[in-house]
Amino acid sequence: MKAIIIPEHGGVEVLRYDSDYPTPSPEKGEVLIKVSATGLNRVDTFVRMGYPGIEITLPHIPGGDIAGTVAEIGSGVEGVEIGSRVMVYSLLTCGECIFCLEGKRNLCLNWECIGMQKKGGYAEYAVAPAENIIPLPDSVSFEDAAACSIAGLTAYHGIKTVGELQNGQSFFIWGGSGGLGTLAIQIAKHLGATVYTTGSSDEKVEIMRNLGADHAFNRLTQDVPAEIRKTAPIGLDLIMDYVGPETFTTSWELLKKGGTMLLCGILTGRETNLNIQFTYLRHLSIKGLNLGTMDELKELLDLVADGTLKPYIGERFPLEEAAEAQKMMEENRHIGKIILKP
Ligand SMILES: NC(=O)c1ccc[n+]([C@@H]2O[C@H](COP(=O)([O-])OP(=O)(O)OC[C@H]3O[C@@H](n4cnc5c(N)ncnc54)[C@H](OP(=O)(O)O)[C@@H]3O)[C@@H](O)[C@H]2O)c1
After folding, report:
1. How far is the CA of 338 from the centre of ligand 1 (A)?
2. CA-CA distance, 67 to 241, in Å (whole number)?
3. Shortest-distance Cα residue to atom 41 of ligand 1
């Protein structure tokens, strides 16, 4: 099969296209999926470079956003038909730890993720546990499904479940122009919030406004905190910050008293400074999150199926051009989601 291999960690130049990689066979409880669309995620670039604290077995096939058709069924799998349209929930859980036993599988102590610890979807075929596949409604395209499974799920879980964003509250995200951000804007609007966001060009700002952002700013030409303060003088209720040290302090100072910061990424580094006194005097909270639950992914899919949310697919690349696609992402030249087509 066709596949993109990471033989060693490094820059985009290490990504190797192989037109004759062995097609995997589904083991007990697994299905083989013929991939129709794979979404690119920032995490793929971290996996390629070597993800801090997470062991990636090389050679590796990246990619956790997988949508396609079931091509083969492993032993013991019931209720799945060859040829059915599916997407993959990429989080693998042990089913045995205290969190799994309490039904909180997304907090699993022994979690793994397809595309990280397990080989993923930058390929013509990929395997996944049958319990991780979700049937696709006819109205949801493979591309839209692939756009949702990691970035969309994280935005949905973060904003709705962890951040508990309420109708009438304010929400801010840096990079509303990216894969996660373009869905975060729509999810926050759907929940009734006033949405603030940023992008790095006027074209991106225009697109974010069209997606529903009430206040979108060009972070390279505008003073973002000053612009936000014009309409939110006492600050914002909920901020999702995946950028890290470059934006953390600004985000923290933009929170309203009692506000909440959601952390879910390390785009510019892993550590930052926190003013403890500012934090307790202003009753601020930080909540971390990683992905979300399979039920939340199904809820998100329903919102896409009924047209409430529309993933923004900005770029499509053939599989063999994955290195160019990752380069575009690392240089922030893309808008919305980048899709690879095997
Ligand atoms: N924890 C989880 O479960 C989880 C799941 C999914 C994603 N994530 C994280 O979420 C982040 C976004 O992922 P993604 O796949 O949506 O990536 P993406 O499509 O590349 O979007 C990221 C956006 O961030 C903006 N940005 C880059 N550097 C910035 C800076 N210094 N200041 C402000 N904005 C900046 C860029 O937009 P502009 O250039 O237009 O500003 C870029 O498009 C990543 O850090 C990823 O690892 C975490």
Report:
1. 13
2. 28
3. 199
Predicted TM-score (pTM) of the model is: 0.97
Q: How far is the CA of 147 from the centre of ligand 1 (A)?
A: 14
- Ligand 1 proximity of 219 Cβ (cutoff 6 Å): yes
Output the residue whose Cα is nearest ligand 1's atom 30: 243
Is 335 touching ligand 1 by the criterion CB < 6 Å? no
Q: Are 3-136+312-341 and 154-288 in the same CATH fold?
A: no
Joined together, the tokens standing for residue 44 give 């793929």
pLDDT (0 to 100) of residue 52: 85
Q: Is the beta carbon of 157 within 6 A of some atom in ligand 1?
A: no
Residue 112 contacts by C-beta under 8 Å, 6 or more apart in sequence? 91, 92, 118
Q: Does domain 154-288 have CATH number 3.40.50.360?
A: no
CA of 255 to the centre of ligand 1 (A): 20
Which atom of ligand 1 approaches the CA of 292 most closely?
Answer: 3
* Cβ-proximal residues to 72 (8 Å cutoff; 6+ apart), any chain: 25, 26, 31, 32, 82
Q: How much is the mean pLDDT over the chain?
A: 97
User: How high is the pLDDT of residue 53?
Assistant: 86
- The number of residues making up the chain comes to 342
Q: Whose alpha carbon is nearest atom 13 of ligand 1?
A: 42
Which CATH superfamily includes the segment(s) 3-136+312-341?
Answer: Medium-chain alcohol dehydrogenases, catalytic domain (3.90.180.10)
Determine the distance separating the centroid of ligand 1 and the alpha carbon of 332, expressed in angstroms: 9
List all residues 6 or more positions away from 255 whose beta carbon is below 8 Å from its beta carbon.
235, 236, 237, 239, 261, 282, 284
pLDDT digits (tens, 9 = 90+) for 103-153: 999 999 999 999 999 999 999 999 999 999 999 999 999 999 999 999 999
Domain ranges (residues) in the chain: 3-136+312-341, 154-288
